[in-house]
Amino acid sequence: MKGDPIELFLDAGNLALDLLNTRESSDGASGDQLRSPDELRTWLHEAGLAAAGGRITALQSPPAARILLTEAHRLRDDVSLAVRSMVRGETVPAHVVYGINRVLEEGRTGASLRLDPDGARLEEAERGDSPLSMLVPVARAAADLIVSADAARVRRCASDTCGRWFLDTSKGGRRKWCSMATCGNRAKAATHRRRQASA
Question: Is 191 exposed, middle or buried (0-12, 13-18, 19+ CB in 10 A)?
């Protein structure tokens, strides 16, 4: 419902996964935390992207804010397809690479993701600046994920009621929960209750 506060999860280990988690609900229900330009503004601020170059002013214009919200949704869809391709061991679709590149090329220092038979790489070049450049760090995180992340460490939370994605950057590579403070603690408490009940 409009006006309800959003609870942001920004601990996925990758900014693109943080954006993806604005749609992947933590309670098992399908939802969207970026339903309005105001919610996008909040997310950009919390993710540390709003202050970069003072570009948050782009969200003061209602038409520009709506366009940026649409672009954020498109980028999030591309991240979703890229992540799902990665975890299945498939090549990221060309239209997803195009979508990520559309955003990457909007930054002052633009970058393009290239897929070659030998693998993926990033090429950088100087570009102009636009309101869409506020999403460049997210697109860059998506490209970095595709280029250098171990797909086996891109995971969904082990909780049956959570749909969040995360990049396991732990030393042992055994992270199971999106967050120990939420899903991890709930699982520990449930295990403790089961042990108490059977004792």
Answer: exposed
pTM of the model: 0.81
Contact indicator for 167, 18 with CB cutoff of 8 Å: no
d(CA 96, CA 116): 15
How many Cβ atoms sit within 10 Å of the Cβ of residue 104? 28
In which element (H, E) is residue 169 found?
Answer: none
- Mean of pLDDT values over 63-91: 95
Task: Report pLDDT digits (tens) over 8-57.
Answer: 788 899 999 999 999 865 554 568 999 999 999 899 989 988 755 445 56
- Virtual CA dihedral for 133, 163, 166, 51, nearest 10 degrees? 30
- 8 A C-beta contact, residue 19 and residue 72: yes
> What does each C-alpha distance from 83 to 55, 66, 134 come to in angstroms?
28, 26, 21
In the chain, the largest separation of any two C-alpha atoms, in whole Å, equals 66
> Tokens at residue 160, please?
């049956």
pLDDT confidence bin for 150, thresholds 50/70/90: very high
The domain spans of the chain are 15-198
Tell me which fold the domain 15-198 belongs to.
Answer: Jann2411-like fold (1.10.3300)
